[in-house]
Each structure stands twice: as C-alpha cells, then as structure tokens.
Write a structure and sequence with these properties.
Bound molecules: pyridoxal-5'-phosphate
CATH superfamily of the largest domain: Type I PLP-dependent aspartate aminotransferase-like (Major domain)
Number of domains: 2
Order of helices and strands: EHHEHEHHEHEHEHHEEHHHEEHEEEH
Number of helices: 14
CATH topology of the largest domain: Aspartate Aminotransferase, domain 2
Strand order of the largest sheet: 2-8-7-6-5-3-4
Strand content: 15-25%
Radius of gyration: 20 Å
C-alpha cells in the first residue's frame, strides 16, 4: 500500500482535470509574452489577489527572491521573522543575489510586532543600512500553518507607511489563509506591495508560483525572472494546471483543515504530547513529545515510516504533519493509529 505521506502538501499529483487541460492548452512562447494560457493564469491570479499584474515563476522561492530584488536595493535592510521561509529556507538568496541585508525579528503571535519594527527601523545615519522592506508570511509554515489576521497586520502597515517601507507577503499558502479566515485573498493581500503564492502547495499543481503586484513592480520582476533563468517557453502546459488549481482546488482546502483538526483530536491525549497550534488553524500541525529531543523525533519519524506513515522531523519542533488532497479519512486514521501504537500508554 502507498505510504500516507504527511511530509508536505507539495507531494500531491495533478488531478485528472489538470491532465486534460494540460493536453489541450493553447500554447505560445511565454518569453515573447504570447502564451495565451500563461497570460490567462497571470490575469486570473492578479484578479484573485486584487493586484494589477502577476508573473508566473517556477517556485515560491523564486517568487519571494524576485520580490525582494524588486522592492529593495543593494545594501538595504529588510525586516522579517526569524522563522520565516525567506530567512530560513531560501539559501540566503536575498543577500547573495541582491545584497539585501536580512534582519530577523522574533514574531509575536505569528506576526511581526509594530513596536518592534518601529524600534528596528534604522535612523538616517551613513554608518547603517537603510531599512526599506518588511516581509510577512500568511499562513505561517513554521508556526504550524497559523494565519495572521487583518487586525495583526494593520499596525505593521501603519508603521510601514509612516516610514516609507515596502511590504511583501509570502503567501505560499494564502488560499489556506483565505479559507481559514473566511476572508478573500484579495483582502489579505491588499496591504502589501507584492504577494507570492504557490500553486504546488495543497492545490495539486505539479509546478508553479505567482508573484502579484503593481504593473511597474511586475515589469521589474519579469527582468529578474529572466536574470534567474526563470523565463520559460511553452509553459502554458503547466499554467493550464494552475488554472484548474485556482478553479477547483481552493474550496476543498477546508477538508484538509478539518482533517488536520481531527489529527490533533486523535493525538491530544497521548502522554507528553504538545501540539502546535492547538487547535490547528489550517493544514499543518507540529507534534512534539516532551521526552524526545531532535534525535528522538527523528527516530519516531523512522518508526512511523516503518508503519507506512511519512512525516518530517524538524529538530526541536518535533514532527510536522501536513494534510492535503491525497490524505483521505482512511489515511488520516492510519496515521492516528500509528502514533497511538508508538506513543500510547
Ligand atoms: C514552500 C514555501 C515557499 C517556497 O516554495 P517552493 O516552491 O518550495 O520554492 C515559500 N514560503 C513558504 C511559507 C513555503 O511554505
């Protein structure tokens, strides 16, 4: 039997409808701007996020990296969360490629704190870098898919406006936030200059992310995409799947959120377990056992694997489980059972 793969919501395969659309999509050379399927995906994405324009890129990492290169100049400083994807998991690209200096701050309730930002903005001083960009993440991967609300973002926006800072949202899972907050993605995206999102996270697309923003910012983003080698040709074959993802993939995310809550319900009574967040807000749950260190959680992940359950051990945070389209109720129950067998009293 196939393993129950909770490692990430990126492990999903395309749906039957995606394969159908991929086979028949009208194509062109997207570097010349004449792939009609890509153009449609970019237009639909921009509309969905309430922005003027969008550019299709191969990955969320490229979308975020391009956003930083578009909004900040070499030598500028950006403020971001110390557990954000951009800071931890993008190979330091913003520093390496653009010379943008990251300043990691400790999040409060999954968001940057406005007072902390105010205290961190550099004065006009030739010794210091120029603070020019704030990056947030919604939903927040390393905080177990927590969502941040409009009320949390508003004071950050106010400081940014007062100080002339740009804002980028890493919205790799913005549609999970849309569903969890019952707030249109366009409203979540509204305060930000640029917003990235992934078609490959939970939406079942094989490849692809978009960066959305103003016409001018996206024009510059296209230049940086080309610089990074992200200009693709008849990429409508992939964009066709992206259109299906936006059409059919979002409403069903509520099912993943429901299963994530059920996973938490099934594990909450295990001895010494700590769930984060509890209850889960979207499709991600961190499962930590008080008596286990990083290596102990690695060993637990190996024991789970032997029982047909795959999940990632993430150091001190424990084990990360992510729900997605290919985990049905049967898979969910199998996962709960495996934890109970291994950690039940
Ligand atoms: C996965 C992820 C990304 C990067 O996406 P890739 O397509 O894997 O490069 C960016 N931000 C967050 C929050 C993510 O979870």
């Amino acid at each position: 039997m196939d393993p129950v793969d909770l490692r990430s919501d990126t492990v999903t395969h395309p749906t039957a409808e995606m394969y159908r659309q991929m086979a028949t999509a009208p194509l062109g050379d997207d570097v010349f701007g004449d792939d009609p399927t890509v153009n449609r995906l970019e237009q639909v994405s921009a509309e969905r996020l309430g922005k003027e324009a969008a550019v299709f890129v191969p990955s969320g990492t490229m979308a975020n990296t391009i956003a930083v290169g578009t909004l900040a100049r070499p030598g500028d400083e950006m403020l971001l969360m110390e557990d954000s994807h951009i800071y931890l998991y993008e190979a330091g690209g913003s520093a390496r490629l653009w010379g943008v200096h990251p300043r990691p701050l400790t999040p409060v309730d999954g968001c940057l704190d406005a007072d902390m930002i105010r205290d961190s903005i550099r004065p006009q001083d030739p010794h210091q870098p120029r603070t020019s960009l704030i990056c947030l993440e919604n939903s927040h991967n390393m905080q177990g898919g927590r969502v941040i609300s409009a009320a949390q973002v508003a004071p950050v926006v106010e400081v940014a406006r007062q100080s002339g800072l740009k804002m980028h949202l890493d919205g790799a899972r913005i549609f999970h936030a849309e569903v969890a907050l019952a707030t249109p993605a366009a409203d979540i995206a509204a305060p930000f200059d640029t917003v990235s999102f992934c078609l490959s996270k939970g939406l079942s697309c094989p490849i692809g992310s978009l960066l959305c923003g103003s016409i001018d910012d996206i024009a510059e983003a296209r230049r940086l995409r080309k610089l990074l080698g992200g200009g693709m040709r008849q990429v409508g074959v992939i964009a066709a799947a992206g259109l299906v993802a936006l059409d059919e993939g979002i409403d069903r995310l509520a099912e993943d959120h429901r299963r994530c809550r059920e996973l938490a319900d099934g594990l909450r009574d295990l001895d010494g377990v700590q769930l984060a967040p509890d209850p889960p807000q979207t499709n991600i749950l961190f499962i930590r056992f008080e008596d286990l260190d990083g290596a102990g959680h690695e060993a637990l992940a190996a024991d789970l694997e032997a029982r047909g359950i795959r999940a990632l051990a993430v150091g001190e945070l424990g084990i990360r489980a992510v729900l997605h389209r290919q985990i049905d109720d049967q898979g969910l129950h199998k996962a709960i059972e495996a934890f109970q067998q291994l950690r039940g009293s």
